[in-house]
Design a protein that fits this description.
Structural class: alpha/beta
Helix content: 25-40%
Bound molecules: adenosine-5'-triphosphate, magnesium ion
Length: about 350
């Protein structure tokens, strides 16, 4: 497989994205003003507790937000590049402006932006062989013959660490183990060489050894193919392994953004610090209780005023944090944080 060489051009820019669910009980602001970008070939880690809007952010990019959810504000700019070197041309499309059922997003989904997630059984149909499903994806997006599609599928399966790929191709999804199915799903997602892979907790259901193998596999494929990865997880250990940049989400908002080293060695937001304290430390005696983050994530219909984390925050400043909504500020060297400890209001 040819290595892809590319500069660090912009790939995707999400600006002030708001995706809400309109339910009888009220409005859930699943994604509430999220801004971030991903450069070509870069891995962005997205972390945060359950329900903070990680998956809905990914669904918004792919325009697969389920009813009754919809994007209510913001833009998602996808930069597309054609040609090579000096003759390379760039065009930009705002994904929020596309018809979610239309041809343009269909041609982007799977081909330019691919998704893998926790349960491969839901991305494969049980009644068709793995091979037919991967071939179908290839034939949909690439101008190749059936035989060529079969060769590409076998080649991708092999690349994804399935040694007997010409046998696997004839199998049904339920005939494979969890780890093999996950590899087959990655093969299907990567068969069209997407420029962005959205990986939504792809290893959460696997044992630790298989997880480590899949992470190594993804890193290898990324290096070969030059794709960017948006890696969604609540596992900070996986973030440390995979990501270059990280965004930390809390209740639909990005509360901190930094390169992976700054985030781990110098976390700024009290929420990020709490998340880091909750990681099990190697060598720590198993009887010692781990720190968990105090308090519960608030009910999505009753979001606290001011900083939404204030009821759980160790650094809570009354009269400030429960009143004023913090804005993102640069705490130094591009390390962004949205917290009154850093914007001058708390001093
Ligand atoms: N189909 C839906 N209908 C209604 N509300 C939804 C739907 N999908 C997500 N939500 C709500 O949107 C918010 C964000 O959910 P999301 O699935 O993005 O969280 P997450 O960060 O991916 O969590 P997890 O770590 O559990 O996967 C939650 O409050 C959730 O209840
Ligand atoms: Mg999720």
């Amino acid at each position: 497989m040819a290595r892809v060489n590319q500069g660090q051009g912009m790939l995707i820019e999400v600006n002030n994205l708001k995706t809400y669910f309109f339910l009888d009980e009220g409005t859930v602001r699943a994604v509430d003003g999220v801004t971030f970008d991903i450069k070509r070939g870069q891995t962005l880690g997205v972390v945060g507790e359950s329900g903070c809007g990680k998956s809905v952010t990914g669904q918004s990019i792919l325009r697969i937000v389920p009813h009754p959810g919809r994007i209510v504000e913001g833009s998602i700019l996808l930069h597309r590049y054609k040609g090579n070197g000096a003759s390379e041309t760039e065009t930009v499309v705002d994904l929020t402006k596309l018809d979610p059922m239309g041809d343009e997003i269909r041609s982007i989904r799977g081909a330019e932006i691919a998704l893998i997630f926790q349960e491969p059984m839901t991305s494969f149909s049980p009644v068709h062989t793995i091979g037919n499903q991967i071939m179908e994806a290839i034939l949909l997006h690439q101008d190749v013959t059936k035989d060529e599609a079969r060769e590409i599928a076998i080649d991708m399966l092999r690349h994804c660490g399935l040694p007997r790929a010409d046998d696997v191709i004839n199998r049904y999804p339920w005939e494979l183990s969890g780890g093999m199915r996950q590899r087959a799903m990655i093969a299907m997602a990567l068969s069209c060489r997407p420029s962005l892979l959205i990986a939504d907790e792809p290893t959460t259901a696997l044992d630790v050894t298989t997880e480590a193998q899949i992470l190594t596999l993804m890193q290898g494929l990324q290096e070969e193919m030059g794709m960017a990865i948006m890696y969604i997880t609540h596992n900070l250990g996986v973030i440390a392994e995979m990501a270059e940049e990280v965004i930390v989400m809390y209740l639909g908002k990005v509360v901190e953004r930094a390169d992976v080293d700054s985030l781990f060695y110098d976390p700024k937001h009290p929420y990020t610090r709490a998340l880091l304290r909750s990681i099990p430390k190697i060598g720590r005696r198993s009887r010692v209780r781990l720190d968990t983050i105090e308090g519960m994530v608030p009910d999505p219909y009753n979001i606290p005023p001011g900083c939404t984390f204030h009821p759980r925050c160790r650094s809570f400043m009354p009269g400030i944090c429960n009143v004023i909504e913090p804005q993102m500020v640069d705490a130094g060297g591009g390390h962004l944080v949205s917290c009154h400890l850093y914007d001058g209001k708390g001093k």
